[in-house]
Amino acid sequence: MIDVTPALAISGLTFAYPDGRQALFGVDLSIADGERVALLGPNGAGKTTLVLHLNGILHGGGGRVEVAGLPVTPRDRQAITEIRRRVGIVFQDPDDQLFMPTVAEDVAFGPSNLGVHGEELASRVTEALTAVGMLEHRDQIPHHLSFGQRRRVAVATVLAMRPSILVLDEPSSNLDPASRRELAGILADLPVTVLMVTHDLPYALELCPRSVILDGGRIVADAATGDLLADRELMAAHRLELPFGFDPSFRR
Asked: Which PANTHER family match (predicted)?
């Protein structure tokens, strides 16, 4: 029998912050293994809150989150360690993830904390840096790199964990056009399930065949990215705007 367990399954997820602000209202979302999905929505929609539930950073509300059938249960230390290996989050600011003396040490940090050492650890570092085109910079100080290079190293720190799901928070933000294009090429070749949080709608169209719009803590649309971006009324209703002159049908 073919295994149809989704890579990510969210059902009835609700969450309120300690000040009483309700951020999520019964979110349901399923992502198949190998799918690439963009998470779109205006500021304050609940996107970051949702993402932080995927590996148990936030918890305590209602509903359920499962990664490949495994429930995200922060109170079970062994289980949450495995979830955090499987779900890799690349944050918007690469400096949040780079703190070691060299690039290679940053990339090795996560796997080494899981008990990976010796040749296996060296292999993971080489593999991850090669995947993002940064192997030749392995001995450099991370903060001497350009912003685009640091973002690629941040991706490598997550890839070294060999996750099954890669979550990207605004991956194209603050990149120059060349760095933006180079990162797109790298992300397109990664053999993992991708959930990409972005305001860069052309980037979503380029990299993610499917998009979900989250607004007011609820999923309000879930369809092919090109179809969503071409729906002007839907876009306007949720404060999403394409760049001037961009035709979303061009790549459909």
From this structure: ENERGY-COUPLING FACTOR TRANSPORTER ATP-BINDING PROTEIN ECFA1, HEAVY METAL TRANSPORTER
